[in-house]
Structure formats: C-alpha cells, structure tokens
Design brief:
The complex is a heterodimer of chains A (about 110) and B (about 110). In chain A, about 0% of the residues lie in helices and about 50% in strands. Chain A has strands at about 5, 10-15, 20-25, 30-35, 45-50, 55, 70, 75-80, 90-95, 105, 110-114. Chain B is about 0% helix and about 55% strand. Chain B has no helices and eleven strands. Chain B has strands at about 5, 10-15, 20-25, 30-35, 45-50, 55-60, 60-65, 70-75, 85-95, 95-100, 105-109. In chain B, the strands form two sheets. In chain B, strands 2, 4, 5, 9, 10 and 11 form a six-stranded mixed beta sheet that branches. The radius of gyration of chain B is 13 Å and the shape is globular. The chains are: A mainly beta (about 110), B mainly beta (about 110). Chains A and B meet through β5, β9 and β10 of A and β5, β9 and β10 of B.
C-alpha cells in the first residue's frame, strides 16, 4: 500500500486566484494521477504526472488551467489557475500500488470558489 | 474511453437487507475495479476482477464479472450501517481509470 499526504485538505478561494495542491507519497512511484470529483459526482482524471517529463492531460483539461509539477518520484503539485465557481470540487491525488492496478488516493482537497 | 453505466444511482435499504449495484459497458472490459467512498472520505479500492465469469467474495461482499466481460455486480448481504457510502466501478488500467457514476447506499438502522 501507499500512504499519500495531500494538502491543503480544504480551502475557500476567491474568483480569479490560484491554488496549489501538494501531494506527497511515502514511496517512490513512477506515475501520479490527479482526479477531480465535482460535488455529488464521479471521479474524472485530470492528468498523469510523470517525473522528468510534462504531464499528460485528459480531454477537457489543459496545462494553462491545471499546471502540474513533478520534481521527484515522491512529490507532485497541481495548481488550479484563475479559479471560477465551476472549479469548486474535490481534487484527489492518487498512485498505483507496486505491481498492481489498484489506485490509492490521498484524502483530497475540497476547494470552494466564491 | 468508453463510459461504464452504473445503476441504481441511489439505494435506500433497511439494515439487514441485501444490496446490489450493477455496472455495464457496451464494450468488452479487460478488467473492472470496485471502490467504496464513505461520506466525506476518499475512494478506497475494494477489488479487481479480470477473468470472464469471475466471482470473488470479501466477507458479506460478492463481486461478479460477467461471462462476456461487459458487466459486473457488487452484492452486499445483510447490510450494516458501516456499509453506507458510494460504490464505484471503474474500467481502465495503469491508473487511468474511467469511473461509473456510483451507487449511493444509505442504510436505515
């Protein structure tokens, strides 16, 4: 299993500002994943963060809006830029277990944009 | 990627009753995963099914993968209040998963 620390756990932000979410894993992992869960909805993959290369974004998500850093094999950040109320969601960092397909999730960041 | 359809969206049961959620795909799945998300919590992996017709049990939970690998189900026998939460199925691999919309289970004591 993997232990994932994510912060902040929640934040309330003003429209037009940016928030950076941090994700720390207790072991080295090749890929880290950022998911979004809109209120009462399912999870949607935003992007895959690979160490040493640019993140790979899913359809509907762009780097200018959700820049991602991956400076090493245990850490990643996701920034939600120029926020609007539509960005109010839970953002979840996740990794796959070693040799398995199962996803381990961080506790999430609940973002509210006013 | 292809969506996975999950039904029902909500299920309210009396404690002790059984519960089933279904996951359907229009295309053949290489595998299906199931997750549980407690209220206010994050999704937690329950199981992965890979083989056609596979059945796996975890205590009161029974997971099935259809013969055609296009559908799956999660059945809970004699629900308890600790079973409350949203159950998601998901398809995909290597961390790139497509989740169903989930079935939110509430259990009345």
């Amino acid at each position: 299993s993997a232990v994932i620390s994510q912060k902040p756990s929640r934040d309330i932000c003003q429209r037009g500002t940016s928030l950076t979410i941090q994700c720390q894993v207790d072991s080295q992992v090749t890929m880290m994943f950022w998911y979004r869960q809109q209120p009462g909805q399912s999870l949607t993959l935003i992007a895959t963060a690979n160490q040493g290369s640019e993140a790979t974004y899913e359809s509907g998500f762009v780097i200018d809006k959700f820049p991602i850093s991956r400076p090493n094999l245990t850490f990643s950040t996701l920034t939600v830029s120029n926020m609007s109320p539509e960005d109010s969601s839970i953002y979840l960092c996740s990794v796959t277990g070693t040799g398995t397909e199962k996803l381990f999730f961080g506790s999430g960041t609940q973002l509210s944009v006013l | 990627g292809q969506q996975v359809m999950q039904i029902p969206q909500y299920q309210h049961v009396q404690e002790g009753e059984d519960f089933t959620t279904y996951c359907n795909s229009s295309t053949t799945l290489s595998n299906i995963q199931w997750y549980k998300q407690r209220p206010g919590g994050h999704p937690v992996f329950l199981i992965q099914l890979v083989k056609s017709g596979e059945v796996k049990k975890q205590k009161r939970l029974t997971f099935q993968f259809g013969e055609a690998k296009k559908n799956s189900s999660l059945h809970i026998t004699a629900t308890q209040t600790t079973d409350v939460g949203t159950y998601f199925c998901a398809r995909g691999s290597q961390g790139n998963l497509i989740f169903g919309k989930g079935t939110k289970l509430s259990v009345k004591p």
